[in-house]
Amino acid sequence: MAKLIVDGKICNDDWQVVPADATELPDGRLIVSLAMWRDGDERLAGRDQVGVWLEADDDPAEIALALPSLPVVAVNFPKFADGRGYSTAALLRTRYGYRGQLRAIGEVLRDQFFYLERCGFDALQPPEGRYSDTQLEAALASLADFSEPYQAAVTPPQPVWRRHVREGLAR
Amino acid sequence: MYRYDAFDQRIVDERVAQFRDQTSRYLAGELSEDEFRPLRLQNGLYIQKQAPMLRIAVPYGLLSARQLRRLAHIARTYDKGYGHFSTRQNIQFNWPALEDVPQILEELAEVEMHAIQTSGNCIRNFTSDPFAGVAGDERIDPRPWAEILRQWATFHPEFAYLPRKFKIAVNGAEQDRAVIQCHDIGLDLVRDDAGATGFRVLVGGGLGRTPMIGKEIAAFVPWRDILTYCEAILRVYNRFGRRDNMYKARIKILVNSLGIDAFRARVEEEWGHGRGGPATLTEEEVARVTSHFVDPDYRPLAGDDAGYLSELGRDKAFAAWAKRNVRAHKRPGYASVVLSLKKTGIAPGDITDGQLDLVADLAERFSFGEARATHEQNLVLADVEQSRLGELWQLLRAAGLATPNIGLLTDIICCPGGDFCNLANAKSIPVADAIQQRFDDLDYLHDIGDIEINISGCMNACGHHHVGHIGILGVDKKGEEWYQITVGGAQGNDASLGKVIGPSFARAEVPDVIERLIETYVDNRYADERFIDTARRIGIEPFKARVYTKREADRKVANG
Ligand code: SF4
After folding, report:
1. Which of B41, B247, B420, B460 to mutate to test the pocket of ligand 1 (most atoms within 8 A of CB)?
2. Which fold has domain B413-558?
């Protein structure tokens, strides 16, 4: 079973991400592509546990209305250096008010964990086999790389100068 | 200048720890080259021809004496005894060992410095006017705003993996000295009719492969909203900028393909959601940052210093230096001094450890402990009493920092080029040197007057060749180094892009070509007309004709 980080803890995953080109749908809890979800694949009928994953160029507005009923939304990072998913996450959390699990999938690497979490991802799913258990354990520390970031994002939602009193220079 | 508080300090300290860990994982083989690359780049670390190159941020060009001494120490300890000031007001070291970089960063953090976001596809170091706070034509001091923006952009989680690099410049004066028209975002501080502070915002300017002048996206964004407005631009760019082709990935391509009006509409739509959000600035925060940029304790002086004025009449060499390297100051009896890093025989922008130490001493003795780096790759002591200019000049002269050539032909902007840079098509430093050698007559240089020659070793345009009055670009012709020449580019309020005069030249031909271009100017100029004005008036044809006719004639003689 794949390992992922949820709210800063390592968990076993009981969801399966269904690739866009999959022909067979496995049993269990599925996260399907936007196209499959939107087109209402009949094999999804009757399953109450279905999540959606967005490709980097999918518009999160497309799922905005359904968000209250989605238990999990995932955003794919085709390459770790493709930063579109950060904006997608920020939009889902702020503009569209999504409160469920928001999961980063694809090329999700530990050196991006901190930024991913700040943009609203509470679940981080590195590629299977990319990290050993010990490495993943060590990687949790990177979530705390910076204790007081400067700017507002999804978390924390206020810039440092609203969170704390900062003194100017006394003359 | 801005001094760190506990929050600022913690961020750079935590960065050192983070990068130390990343470097050790890379060296242990846990991080692949591809995975490490963006991490090291966002820390200013390139792998170059000779060794890694470390680019250290000098936010909007400001340096304290203490920081200069630390840079001298780094040059001595980890490099070969010199550093190089870049056209983005940063300083780079060409010879550090990768293993030493975490230690260097730690030593930088001790003096409130870092290398954060000096490279990579993220928001880069902010640049601004090197005469901020002292120029007579200043509307609003850009430094507090540049600092506020710097903090906002530092580790901004949403914009760390943009389609391409992103450069922002801030100007607050009547004359733009920050090249704001050639940045991804150019911010121009202005007042509205009611006297309130805000920003005229330009977007989509840039040099590189497809040079463009920035377009106005907003005539006035109130100061409170500048962060949310920039966020709206960045978000539209992050989502919709091209990622399939690195040569089409800058924001200018997106702005151009949508058209400025459609791009503006998208930004406004986005801003409609973000405006008024938590990033909206407060008076307290602006006051806090501004408190770091109040005037130093100037002495009340009546006016121009009599001793200085008479010295100008007595000493020709001193007068020549003062004419080019000393600038008027907003305060009576004070002046700003430009230290030339353009001595013939030294790569433009290079400075030794000893010179860095000396500049630190001089900053303390003459200019309230501060210096500035310019995008023309020189240094500035901004607050010198006129009565002490003679003394300062002697000290600078002894250290090779008083070449009286600021704004003259030999004050060449030049990227590191093929001697150091992996991306180069051609060398640039030897070209600058050959031109400086050719034009070694100071009287002639002063007669030619204001002219900017900018040299880049490749299309990336780090040497800003497009906006040089004469631009020189290294090109690759079947594996050989050639140089393409442009005429008529300019920075400043009436920025323009130079036009290519024709087929490119071998390196040995370049000084001749420059000579022909200068002759064309001298023959055609009106009294007191600058090179760029003549070039604009007569167009490139006369320049072209002179250069290529002469070249043909030479070839015939040679083939005789
Ligand atoms: S212009 Fe090209 S050669 Fe020069 S420093 Fe930039 S990338 Fe290197």
Report:
1. B460
2. Sulfite Reductase Hemoprotein; domain 1 (3.30.413)
